[in-house]
Amino acid sequence: MGKKDKKGDTSDGSSEEEYVVEKVLDKRTVKGKVQYLLKWKGYKEEESTWEPVENLDCEELIKTFEDNRKEKEAKAKKPEDRGKKRVRESSEETNTSSRKGRGTSVSSADDHKETKRERKEEKTKSGFDKGLKAEKIIGASDATGDLMFLIKWADSDEAELVPAKVANVKCPQQVIAFYEERLTWHTPTESE
């Protein structure tokens, strides 16, 4: 479970160092390519790096990360379903709840939750929410059950999956252009 990377090649080319992935922290798409933010074993979290999925050899950690992410998204959609099977979230949340039991002031715990919520909202904001303009739709997917467009943002190398319902309202001309590029006409032959 790691990523091999050549560091400090010797003249015979036999020196190859293997870095071990400790944890997958985040995911993003750049120019249509998926990248994961990796925490390396034996390194500080500040030294985490974004790596393209094709360079990775840590399928188990990626699967765990994706499963946790899907579960968190499902919980976000249904907040009243909290309880039965609760996956252990970040250690910060666990510490906050245990501190409450020991008499920590409620206001400091609330402040902590608010800052965490603000960070989460910042991450979940789409490019439209951040004021970015769609340059082009470069792909589409319905893997989540809803039609999503992969939108390339103007003045940025970033691309992001956006629900089609949002794209239809926010950038209808790009949606039309996307469909027009893929439109094919079937002209019947004389025998038909």
TrEMBL record:
Record field: compositional bias (Basic and acidic residues) = 67-91, 109-131
Limits of the Chromo domain: 19-77, 132-190
A Gene Ontology biological process term:
heterochromatin formation
- The segment annotated Disordered runs over 67-131
Q: Pfam families from the entry?
A: Chromo, Chromo_shadow
Instruction: Output the InterPro entries linked to this UniProt entry.
Output: Chromo-like_dom_sf, Chromo/chromo_shadow_dom, Chromo_dom_subgr, Chromo_domain, Chromo_shadow_dom, Chromodomain_CS, Heterochromatin_chromo-domain
Tell me the leader sequence span: none
A single GO molecular function term of this UniProt record: chromatin binding
GO terms for cellular component: heterochromatin; nucleus
Cellular compartment(s): Nucleus
Q: Which UniProt keywords apply?
A: Chromatin regulator, Nucleus, Repeat, Transcription, Transcription regulation
PROSITE patterns found in the cross-reference section: CHROMO_1, CHROMO_2
Q: Where are the transmembrane segments?
A: none
Q: Which PANTHER family match?
A: CHROMOBOX PROTEIN (PTHR22812)
Q: What is this protein called?
A: Heterochromatin protein 1
Q: Which organism is it from?
A: Heliothis virescens
Taxonomy of origin reads: Eukaryota, Metazoa, Ecdysozoa, Arthropoda, Hexapoda
